[in-house]
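Sanity check

After download, print the first record. It should look like this:
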Amino acid sequence: MVRKAENLGKLNRMPGTPDHYVLITLRQGGSVIGSKETKAASGYNAVWNAPFLFDMPPGEIHELPLSLEFIIMQGRIYTRSRVLGRVLIGCDALEEGQVHWKDMCNRGQVETARWHTIQPDSL
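Expected structure tokens:
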């Protein structure tokens, strides 16, 4: 579930409150095997509360080279200039994302919520 984000930045000088979206991709060994997108959430403290489900590849999930990438965007058009940052959870992630992935795999279908720091787009 994509819950919320706090203190999101603004990418342009347009008046008004920007809309934010999250593009979620499931990757296996670097290749995208599924993707989802949240609906728009307005403001700098966006709340989505958006569940997402993916069909998983066969095999033991904790042994597969899987990762979830969350790309936080301003506006619906996916371009580098619209990306605020990324969060990666899984085998390719930083330590915080790897720990979260292991906890998710060990708990089965029980939700495992964590705060993550949005990393710059250059991740």
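If your output differs, re-run the checksum step. Summary of this record's structure: Residues 31 and 109 are 24 Å apart (CA to CA).
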